[in-house]
Amino acid sequence: MRFDLDGLEVFFPYDRIYLEQHQYMRCLKQSLDAGGHCLLEMPTGTGKTVCLLSLITSYQYANPSAGKLIYCTRTVPEMNHVMEELATVLDYRARMLHPEQPSEVEISCSSGDMEDIGGTTADRSSKRARKVYRREDSGKAPMGPSSSRAGAGGSGVLALCLSSRRNMCIHERVMAESDREAVDSACRSMTASWVIEASQKKPGSMETCAYYDNFQAAGESTSMPSGVYDLDELQKWGKSRGWCPYYLTRQAINHANILVFNYQYMLDPKVAKLVSKELGAESIVVFDEAHNIDSVCIEALSVTINDRGLEQATRSLGRLSSEVSRLKASDSQRLQQEYQNLVNGLIDQGLIQAPANDAALASNVLDPDVLNEAVPGNIRRAEHFVQFMRKVVEHLKTRLRSVAGPTGGVRSETPLAFLHRMTNGTSLETKPLKFAYSRLSSLLRTLQVSNLDDYNALTDIADFVSLLATYSEGVAKFAIIMEPNSSAIPGVTDPVIQLACLDSSLAIAPLFKRFGSVIITSGTLSPIDLYPKLLQFEPCISESLSMSTFRPCIRPLVITRGSDQLAVSTRYEDRGDMGVVRNYGAMLVELCSTIPDGVVAFFTSYSYMESLISEWDAIGILRELTKSKLVFIETKDVVETTLALDNYRRACDCGRGAVFLSVARGKVSEGINFDRHYGRAVIIFGVPFQYTLSHVLRARLEYLQTHYQIREQDFLNFDALRQASQCVGRVIRSKTDYGLMILADSRYTRHDKRSKLPKWILQFMDDSCINLSTDMAIAHVKSFLRLMGQPVDQEALQSVLLTVEEVTRMNPARPTISAGEGGAMIMDEHNSAAMASSSA
């Protein structure tokens, strides 16, 4: 579909479009035209990704001055999905712009094979069959270098995704490593500058990476042709040329029109400098699935230190001291050169990239004076800095011992108070502490350390004191929380010191200041009005969209009591009640015996799920449950959970049916979709509040109340309901899909809870769906499944799909204006009448 949207020609790769997709793209365009930020909530399963990509790529094509599209996702599977959709959008645009050139891959699908957007069924009455563009090997849109003379998208677009070495490396030995840290270390040991220099001086003396060597040798010729490159294509391209895809991608950032990567590349100050210097202020930044973006911002600037980390840091300092002594004896000139560089300042030394212009993204860890001034004299020499860090580590050990001792306990201090005690106890000055992180980075580079993982604990401590010194003045946006025991294992003590960021706007504020358009979007942003307060920005567009439907494909049910009429809830005072435990178990058994295929159940925490499963096993509930479905359980181990998910899907595919027991805020609740028969129902037991006795949470709630006037209960309700919405939203992924959303807790009947659910869920929730017993809910379930089990009414489906003609009529009429004699303005009669009618 190629249509006009308020003066912008949009290339949308499907024959028809939903009303909410058109509304969503109009909001996006208004935001881009205004050069402002926006908050948009769109129902899950209605093609949000393809709308974003279609509108923004069309906007870039129509406005060459528009910058890069920076698309931020949470996980690698989401990144790959975005690249697939992008390839489809650009391939369609290339065909529309250059119809004389054949499409790379073009397969006509019958109407029975077409899914909802990511796929809608084509209009059967249409004379022209709908075409879907897929890759030859997997049935998806073409990726990799474009074979078209005009390039990808018909205009030479280059789209790249960035990820870690673990996901991009093609060196056989490095790929054999087990975890991310080992992969990074193996790569650095072959690509570090000093390794390359030693190898050039004495060939064969050091193992180097052939792919990196070839990439360096190619120099300026290492350009990438136009195309859409996901991680697989980047690896294929790298192997075909003999170039390292990891470093090739980072060099190609300058030339790319579209970049897709993880949130951390924009929000974590330590990672952001890898890409931020390449991005212009006119770039368009998108945070997709951004319902938890405030939590991501806080985690990026929070540091936790424990006894084990301090002991590792002590050993690391011992190794550093030995290395410094060895280097003084063998190559003192190198240490002297580092000293001179530090006198000149961090920017001159090259540790911190100088901003390309005044609007460049600055690091949140470092004050401007840290960037521009020379490193303080008392930590310039390597041996002095090592001694400086020893004092810091010993002071932190002393504080931890005092917390864990007999007179200790939980303590909370402001950064200024903690820093005051540190400077008094160690005789250290505040200013050198700001440089600790960068000074450590300089020393590790000077000592030519490849295996940085051995220094992770020391790096955390340097990060801790740099943040502490930087943000000690003014309003306390951090809190120091010292706890004698953070371990969940009974009898095990694990004292910790946490530098907890309380203000989520700190990490994202530089982005709002630098970039003209930052788009925050998700299917579950409700209540949407709290995000501007939490992130401290003013959106020019803030909208929550409803879902257009041809049948009630969602049935939200609020179960407040069991079959014995006893109220069910996970309130702390009720959760241990055997009546509640028994009713929850009986509820799950009855629902699983009624609902076919897959059922997913979410619990409020791992501990509550484990206690319930233990009780259910004791009273025979699990035995009854396994008669109707196989039972799979999410654990904290990623490998175990992945295996359980795979077997769960196999059980659903073979018709046996399964129930997956998982946890709100866990891995399954965030990135896994249970579409079609994999999720005919989602049950959430309780309201997933955060642990309200957490001292870090208490400090944040007090900060929000004091500075942003966000009441404690308002934030807790907001946070719990967005998690609940995210859980139940897993069940519906398209208009032809259907599912039950079952909220099992009496508190969901309260208006302050229920009203915070997204608009697209509330539109299906009437009074008959609220305050149900288990028996009443089962009757609703049977009625819903009977209705949804009927064949899809294709005519009804077409009624919610807009044609090009209908979309064109939705555009406001623009008057045709021309100049008459003497410069008089002449307006088209039809448009004049229309304007008069609308003004009336």
Can you walk through the features of this model?
- This protein has 840 residues and is of the alpha/beta class.
- Among the domains are: 301-503, no CATH class; 554-790, Rossmann fold (3-Layer(aba) Sandwich).
- The chain has 38 helices and 28 strands.
- The strands form 7 sheets. It has a 9-stranded mixed beta sheet with strand order 8-10-9-11-5-12-17-4-18. A 7-stranded parallel beta sheet has the order 21-22-20-23-24-19-25, sandwiched between helices.
- Strand 27 (817-819) and strand 28 (825-827) form a beta hairpin.
- Helix 2 packs across helix 3, helix 15 (307-330) packs across helix 16 (332-344) and helix 15 (307-330) packs across helix 23 (456-470).
- The longest helix is centred in the middle third of the chain and has 24 residues, at 307-330.
- It is globular and about 85 Å long.
- It catalyses: ATP + H2O = ADP + phosphate + H(+).
- One of its GO terms (cellular component) is nucleus.
- This is DNA 5'-3' helicase.
> Number of DSSP helices?
38
CATH architecture of the domain at 554-790: 3-Layer(aba) Sandwich
* Helicity level: 40-55%
Q: What percentage of amino acids are in beta strands?
A: 5-15%
Radius of gyration: 29 Å
Shape: globular
Tell me the CATH superfamily of the domain at 554-790: P-loop containing nucleotide triphosphate hydrolases
Low-confidence stretches: 105-139, 346-364, 816-840
How far apart are the termini? 34 Å
Largest sheet: 9 strands, mixed
User: For the residues shown, what is the average pLDDT?
Assistant: 84
Using the coordinates shown, work out and report the CATH topology of the domain at 554-790: Rossmann fold
Task: Provide the structure class.
Answer: alpha/beta
Oligomer: single chain
- How many beta strands in the DSSP annotation? 28
Order of strands across the biggest sheet? 8-10-9-11-5-12-17-4-18
Keywords: 4Fe-4S, ATP-binding, DNA damage, DNA repair, DNA-binding, Helicase, Hydrolase, Iron, Iron-sulfur, Isomerase, Metal-binding, Nucleotide-binding, Nucleus
Cofactor: [4Fe-4S] cluster
Catalytic activity: ATP + H2O = ADP + phosphate + H(+)
GO molecular function, one term: 5'-3' DNA helicase activity
